[in-house]
Specification:
Elements lengths: L3 E8 L2 H13 L5 E4 L3 E7 L2 E15 H14 L8 E4 L5 H10 L3
Antiparallel strand pairs: 1-4, 1-5, 2-4, 3-4
Length: 106
C-alpha cells in the first residue's frame, strides 16, 4: 500500500500561498492543496521573537512524491527557511486515498 502524507507550509501573502498550492498540484506533486485563512505566527528568528500574519498551505501527497514536493516548495518559496512539515496519514477513506495516489502518479 502507498503511504500518504499531509505537508504543511506557510507564507506571508494569500497570493503566494495560492501560487505554491497551484504549482504543486499542476506538477502532480500534490493531489490537493488547501489554503487556510490567515494565522498569527510567533517564532524566534535570528535571535528575536517575531510575530507575523501567514497563510497556511496543506498539501495531500504520497511518500513517494515527498522529496520532489519539498524540492519544489523550496525553489518556489521566498522564505530563507520555509516551514515544510510532513505528517503521515494513518487512516483515510479508500476512495480518497486512491484518488491522491492516482493524481500524484509519475
Amino acid at each position: 500500500m502507498t503511504d500518504f502524507l499531509t505537508v504543511l507550509t506557510t507564507t506571508d501573502a494569500r497570493e503566494k500561498a495560492e501560487a505554491l498550492a497551484r504549482g504543486a498540484v499542476e506538477a502532480h506533486l500534490a493531489a490537493c492543496a488547501q489554503v487556510s485563512s490567515p494565522v498569527t505566527s510567533v517564532y524566534r528568528w535570528e535571535g528575536a521573537v517575531e510575530e507575523t500574519t501567514e497563510w497556511q498551505v496543506l498539501l495531500k501527497t504520497t511518500t513517494a512524491r515527498y522529496a520532489e514536493l519539498e524540492t519544489h516548495l523550496r525553489q518556489a518559496h521566498d522564505y530563507d527557511e520555509p516551514e515544510i512539515i510532513a505528517t503521515p496519514v494513518t487512516h483515510g477513506s479508500a476512495g480518497y486515498l486512491t484518488w491522491v495516489e492516482r493524481e500524484t502518479a509519475t
